[in-house]
Design brief:
heterodimer, A: about 110 residues, mainly beta, six-stranded mixed β-sheet, about 60% strand, B: about 110 residues, seven-stranded mixed β-sheet, four-stranded antiparallel β-sheet, 11 strands
């Protein structure tokens, strides 16, 4: 059974204070690991896909990395508008288009 | 290009009532999904479809039914609503890069 565990559950930072969110996973054959951002009352918004260990992707103040057991979402010099819940999900390669297995998310608050 | 749209945004049902949650996409994607999200929990897959006329169960299909008569539409049917079905429901489609794009959600309360 695929499993995704995110930590911490919640994180409060001051504006400009960099940090990292963790996503640990177990999956039988990783097709992809996905990061999403979710604002209150809205659907998840796609951020990144990582396919293999060692891969990194960046977008503005966010950088996602991947190892064989975990992924990190690094947030550099965050701003209040980065406040959101960040979701991590995996998809196993089973030859079909199975759904994603999601973690419970990290609720991030950036204080001005 | 609206992407994925869902209706209604909110709904309150009484126990035992039925309803259909609508999902429409204009991206011509073959794969579509229904998830539910409960407070403090990860999204759980209910059903998915790989194309018109083809559907399959996900992790939590009990109490739900789906159909897929066109590429654009993937409605989710709740029969005999129960309080355990109180949740936020999201529809999603799959792009060529395996990432899924989500609709804005339907918040359902069963009382």
């Amino acid at each position: 059974e695929d499993q995704v565990t995110q930590s911490p559950e919640a994180l409060r930072l001051q504006e400009g204070e960099s940090s990292s969110l963790n996503c640990s996973y177990t999956v039988s054959g990783l097709r992809g690991l996905f990061w999403y951002r979710q604002d209150p009352g809205k659907g998840p918004e796609f951020l990144f896909t990582l396919y293999s260990a060692g891969e990194e992707k960046e977008k503005e103040r966010l950088k996602a990395t991947l190892t064989k057991k975990e992924s990190f979402l690094h947030i550099t010099a965050p701003k209040p508008e980065d406040s959101a819940t960040y979701l991590c999900a995996v998809q196993a390669y089973r030859g079909g288009a199975d759904g994603l297995t999601f973690g419970k998310g990290t609720h991030l608050i950036i204080q001005p | 290009n609206a992407g994925v749209t869902q209706t209604p945004k909110f709904r309150i049902l009484k126990i035992g009532q039925s309803m259909t949650l609508q999902c429409t996409q204009d991206m011509n994607h073959n794969y579509m999904y229904w998830y539910r999200q409960d407070p403090g929990m990860g999204l759980k897959l209910i059903y998915y479809s790989v194309g018109a006329g083809i559907t399959d169960k996900g992790e939590v299909p009990n109490g739900y039914n789906v159909s897929r008569s066109t590429t654009e539409d993937f409605p989710l049917r709740l029969e005999l609503a129960a309080p355990s079905q109180t949740s936020v429901y999201f529809c999603a489609t799959l792009s060529g890069g395996y990432e899924q794009y989500f609709g804005p959600g339907t918040r359902l309360t069963v009382t």
